[in-house]
Amino acid sequence: MEESAVVAAHETATAIRRTLGQVISGKPEVIALAIVALLAESHLLIEDIPGVGKTTLAKALARSIDCSVHRIQFTPDLLPSDITGVSVYNQHSGDFEFRPGGVFANIVIADEINRASPKTQSALLEAMEERRVSVDQNSMSLPRPFMVVATQNPIEMEGTYPLPESQRDRFGMRIEVGYPALDDEVAILDSHGQSDPLETLQPVADAQSIMAGIAAVNQVWVDPSLKRYLVSIVAQTRKSPDCRVGASPRSSLQLLRLVRACAVVRGRNYVTPDDIQMLAYPVLGHRVLLSAEAQLAHKTPRTVISQALAAVPVPGRRQS
Question: Which of 151, 258, 280, 314 is paired with 43 by a 20 to 30 Å CA distance?
């Protein structure tokens, strides 16, 4: 792979990172993960309590790129056809005309996705996996790049539905924004107190440059020993006594794609063990289902992922 392709993709990622930093204060790791998902053309789930900047992050990521963006506000009365589209009869032509739904865009912001019913959530399954939409026996391709950035509140919040396992598995990563540090929250008062910085945000990339970055990511070198390391970590979750269901083979594919993007964001054309360790929890954490005993013991998916990382030897590192 040409070094220039990685350099160009890294420069694009850096420009987007600076732009997001103008809106999201004190969260460089969260911003980096969002950009990794973008360059991997993977879907991103942002989960946290209301008011910490989930939707702001999604909007800022979308506005930093000159491409088509649709926002879908998920509510209990949202219908699947509002997402995928619907065929409407035209009395003048005597034919049915397809009116595309909100999913027909390069970046789809699914705001508060777990406030819609599971039936409506499932309307995204085909689009997220195959980048196609089937309506009335017609199958239509979605524009590229295509990325769903969804926000959700914790399921303990009133009026929310837990995402089905198949829906969660479509998201490449799940991240949390978290509360800002004291100084960062003071900076938020200064930057957001009188005006919204989103209003002045200008695109620093376009669909073409993002597609070039995705092509560069797909060619990043992964040593065979690191592929085995990655798969061993995923397989370890299936052996864990704390897991009712471990991570699937799709998880391994997603993790591989995302660690390649992570290498590009960090300015490399090869993957290191640190890339895999950094993304293990964001990629695998929402895909493992804890056993009832583990939940009663107040264990979390992070515990399972940490144990998996500790159980698998790092390639090339001398074991004590």
Answer: 314
Do 3-219 and 221-312 come out as alike in CATH topology? no
220 closest CA partner among 251, 172, 261, 280: 261
Show me where the domains of the chain are located: 3-219, 221-312
* pLDDT 10s digits, 54-110: 999 999 999 999 999 999 999 989 999 999 998 887 878 778 788 899 999 999 999
How wide is the angle at C-alpha 76 spanned by C-alphas 198 and 47, nearest 5°? 50
Q: What are the C-alpha distances in Å from 89 to residues 83, 93, 98, 116? A: 19, 9, 9, 27
Question: Which residues of 246-317 form beta strands (DSSP E)?
Answer: 289-290
Q: What is the pLDDT of residues 263-285, one digit of tens each?
A: 999 999 999 999 999 999 999 99
Asked if pLDDT for residue 166 goes beyond 90, the answer is: no
Cis peptide bond prior to 145, omega within 30° of 0: yes
The CATH homologous superfamily for domain 221-312 is: Magnesium chelatase subunit I, C-Terminal domain (1.10.8.80)
Which residues, at least 6 apart from 103, have a Cβ–Cβ distance to it below 8 Å? 70, 72, 83, 84, 85, 123, 124, 127, 133, 142
Structure tokens belonging to residue 181: 């540090």
Quick one: CA torsion of 47, 128, 41, 173, rounded to 10 degrees? 30
C-alpha distance across the termini of the chain, in Å: 36
Q: Which residues of 302-313 are buried (b: 16+ CB within 10 A; e: fewer)?
A: eebbebbbeebe
pTM of the model: 0.91
Superfamily name and number for 3-219: P-loop containing nucleotide triphosphate hydrolases (3.40.50.300)
Which pLDDT band, with edges at 50, 70 and 90, does 34 fall under?
A: very high
Listed in sequence order, the DSSP H helices in 180-268 are 182-192, 207-217, 224-239, 249-265
